[in-house]
Structures are given as C-alpha cells and as structure tokens.
Amino acid sequence: MKIIHTADLHLDSAMKTHLDSEKASERKNELTLNFSRLCETAESLGVTGIIIAGDLFDTKSVSKKSAAAVLNQIIKFDGIDFYYLRGNHDRESFISFIKESGEIPANLHMFEDAWTSYVLNPESNGKKTVLYGAEFNGDNTNTLISLLNTDFENINIVTLHGQENEYSGKDKTEIVPISELRGKGIDYLALGHVHEYRLKTLDSRGTYCYPGCLEGRGFDECGDHGFVLLDIDEEKGDVIPQFIDFAYRKLHTADVDISECDNSSEIIDKARAVLDESRFSDRDMVKIRLTGDVDENAEVNEDFIADAFKDEYYFVKVKNESKVKIDYMKYANDESLKGWFIRLVQDSEEIDDEDKGRIVRMGLNALTGEEIMQ
After folding, report:
1. What is the pTM of this model?
2. Domains of the chain with CATH codes
3. Contacting residues for 66 by C-beta, under 8 A, at least 6 apart
4. I want to staple 172 with a disulfide (CB 3.0 to 4.6 A). Which of 43, 128, 135, 138 is the partner?
5. In degrees to the nearest 10, what's the CA dihedral of 135, 141, 146, 151?
6. How do residues 174-214 score in pLDDT, each as one tens digit?
C-alpha cells in the first residue's frame, strides 16, 4: 500500500513579498495547481491515501476560488482518500465552504481536537494500518499526547501539526513532545509545521518526519521541496518513507564574493560565473547575495546587477551583504565633507565595526547623490 504524506501547502498565500502583482498572482495560482499535480501524481503512483498534516491553506479566510479548486480535485480523485488535519494557519472557512456547497465528499476525512482514527486498509488480509490524528486547540496541548492509545499489533501512523521538541511546552504553543510519543507503538509520525524535509528516529520501532512545504515561497525556503511517499508492507509491518522532489519552481541563494570588484559590471561577470556553474533552471527564483570586503568607493548597483539576469530566471533579486573596508588613515587629515563624515563614524563608540562600514557606504551614496541601498 502506498500513502502520501504532505503538509504546509499554504494555498492562497499572497506571494507579494518579492513579486510584482502580476507574478504574485501567477505564483498564487501555481500553488493551487500544485495540489492538482499532487493528486495526479498520487493516482499515477497507485497511492490510496494522502495525509495532509496541516496548513493546507495560508489564511483564515480562504478564497472561494481556491477552496473550490481543492474541493473539485478531492471529488475528481474519488479513488484516493484524503486525510485533512488542520494546522495553525487553517481555520473553519474551507470546511464551511464544503458544507455550503453540499455534502462532504466520502473520501475526505478530517480530525478534531480529540483523537480520531481511520483504518487505511479495511479490505487487506495483512496487518491493519491505522491512522490516528488530533488537532491542537490551545487548551489541549499538555494533555493530548497522554490520551493516545494504539494497538501494538497494527501498523500505526500518527499525524500532528506542531513544532517538534523533546518535551512539552509550558504554554499553549503547539509543541509535539517527542519524548512522550516514544514507546506508544508508532511506526510513522507524520508531522506538519516545519517547512523543510526532516526524517528522524522516534524510537526502536518508528520514525518521525516533516515532509516540508510542497513548494518554496520565499528565500528562507530554498532548495528541494516535495512530499513523502510511504510504501507500507502490510505483511511485514514495515513503513518505508521516500522523499519525492516535487516543486514546480525552486528558490536558490547564490553567494558571490565581490572582494576584488570595483564596479557593477565586474560584479555581473563574477555573478555570471557562479550562476553558470550552479545551473539553476530558467523557471527558478534566484537571490544573488553579494559577500566579501569591498573598497568604500566601489560602485555596487543592486538593481543594475539584477537587471542583467532578469531574462534568465523567473525572478532575480540582489542583496548586498558585503562589508566596506575603509582605510581610515587616508581620511585622517581630509578636510572635505566626506573626510569629516568618515571620521565621525570611525570615532563613534556606539557603532560596531560592521555597522560602521554599512553607514559609511550609505553616507557616501548620499553625498554623491546615489540611491541609498540598505
């Protein structure tokens, strides 16, 4: 039997942090289309169930367009059972939309703030595979795990949405206390909330896993993203997880050392060499991060550099994180406004060296009439 474990799709995200309105709208639609791609992929792989471990949507109020798109896919792929556990971003709006549209599809199964279980293979002659799930509600965070009881003779999968920690939290934070889940007969703990893939040992019997988000949305979510395919041996009782790279677009951060560069044209050449070696796809999103130590007079135009690559990738941004190296002695007796400003910054005891370089760069840009890039 094959099951998909996914989480943190965050459909209906605004996607406006980096993108203009046109591309933000396009990316928003792509996230929704990814759910359709996921269903199609599941069918082609012979998957019988999809576990959605929280944060299917990004906002409290889901748009009717996105809600309808998801509901239509669930109805279309009626040979697949969908097990939807709400996360901290999910609210009642999607369920309300379904109820207003008609009956809840027979292949859509949900969870509450108390433990609910589903037998995933009721017609199997092998071991029963049982999925347990419950939603944190703020009041049950410190008691929920203690109420979980599984049959050790079954193949047991448990789904939760929260931040892994060895022990319970002292407040109402959605913490998944790993220590309290050990020894409970869990073969696979299907988690959601963390946006990167993690697979770790739970105890001598089972593992726990975050599949990560299905698609990166910002540059804090670079690299591979996808879902976990569970291959379950109903005779032996084995649950074998495999990460499947699935993202339609990927986000990358490329570090470019510009220590030897004096101007934007030289930086472009240096960045091109790095990007050519990286071989990113033309449909990906790239952040070029400038590093190193540069002369205070170096000309660094982030927009100009980004424009050089705008036709080669879906989206490009440049972030200048280089440090300014300043020969303060050169300005010791400089009577110009520039010299006075640099000495003023140098003599300050309230500014650390790294910030001094940044402030000098901003000040020199202002003195020369350049746009100040922070």
Report:
1. 0.88
2. 2-245 (3.60.21.10), 251-367 (no CATH)
3. 11, 12, 32, 57
4. 138
5. 20
6. 899 999 999 999 999 999 999 999 999 999 999 999 999 99
